[in-house]
Design a protein that fits this description.
alpha/beta, Rossmann fold, six-stranded mixed beta sheet, 12 helices
């Protein structure tokens, strides 16, 4: 390298070295902060996939993400209010109990904090000022389950509700009732639910033994689906079992012929897409959906395609 080249490059090198410390500092000051507030434990079999999607999207945009949630709407409400008090750059919230969450979500949107609802809340996201809703239409998904059971020749379906006050679960049973040609009985196991799966399995076992007219069961949660499978084994009965949502155990049960279908709402997308949408809203004033929800389902997984999804589910993305 000759002297002239050194004289040209040295100033450029000095400028570059002076600018390097400014880059990370500026990025840190501009870091987006988001909250994910769900109506259950975010580490559970279903919500951990949502949380994984949100964290993956946050990492893509260099954003900070705080996740929280509870089956208790009071706890979920408090978490949303804490996020509002921190003046975060966006909130993603599931609205299984919209009446309980209404005031906290309105406090966010009225404060200018963009909100996207997920999973539950498709009927109320507009009135609460949310940018859009990401999820599936529960009524339509339930209708699809009814059509599936028709094709399978079922005559009476037990629709198992595992959570009190969750409008999305009721809508799933409503949809089933609309399209199923036979009888639908709603069966509430909310006193045990996902918190006491052994208790839920025992309750279902007693029900199946006491009513031999039931030839199909629809569960609305993958863990409850496994509890129902175990209940049928313990009772010695052979009902057709369908469920909402995936887990590694559900997928293996489909492969093994222990379940007939699972409705896939692609919950990874329910975590991933809202973070992307909020980042684009903050950075480029983009709004997605045009006033309509962004649908992630329903899709159906059965013995014909379950094996292809098993590895993805075990990795935490399906």
């Amino acid at each position: 390298m000759n002297t002239r080249t050194v004289r040209i490059l040295l100033p450029l090198f000095v400028v570059m070295m002076l600018l390097l410390p400014l880059g990370p500092a500026a990025a840190q000051d501009d870091t987006l902060r988001f909250c994910l507030a769900v109506h259950d434990d975010p580490t559970g079999s279903f919500w951990s996939v949502v949380d994984r999607g949100a964290k993956d999207a946050a990492a893509l945009y260099g954003a900070d993400l705080t996740s929280g949630g509870s089956l208790d709407p009071v706890v979920q409400t408090q978490f949303v209010e804490d996020c509002v008090a921190q003046n975060v750059d966006g909130i993603v919230v599931s609205l299984a109990n919209p009446d309980a969450l209404r005031d906290s979500v309105l406090s966010a949107t009225q404060a200018g904090i963009p909100v996207i609802t997920i999973n539950s809340g498709v009927d109320v996201f507009r009135e609460l000022g949310a940018l859009t809703h990401v999820g599936q239409t529960e009524l339509v998904a339930g209708q699809g389950a009814g059509l599936r059971f028709n094709d399978l020749g079922a005559s009476k379906v037990l629709c198992v509700i595992h959570e009190e006050g969750n409008i999305g679960l009721e809508e799933r049973c409503d949809g089933l009732t609309e399209t199923f040609n036979g009888e639908v009985e709603r069966f509430n196991v909310a006193t045990t639910g996902v918190a006491d799966l052994a208790g839920t399995s025992g309750t279902l076992q007693d029900k199946l033994i006491s009513d031999d007219s039931i030839d199909a069961v629809l569960t609305l949660n993958p863990d409850v689906a496994v509890a129902a499978r175990d209940a049928m084994a313990a009772a010695g009965t052979e009902q057709m079992l369908g469920t909402f949502d995936l887990s590694p155990d559900v997928l293996q049960a489909l492969v093994d012929g222990e379940m007939v279908f699972a409705i896939d709402q692609q919950q990874y997308l329910q975590g991933y897409l809202p973070i992307v949408f909020l980042a684009l809203y903050n950075q480029n004033a983009n709004v997605v959906g045009g006033g309509l929800p962004v649908l992630t389902g329903p899709g159906f997984v059965d013995a014909s395609n379950a094996a292809a999804v098993i590895d993805l589910s075990a990795a935490g993305t399906r």
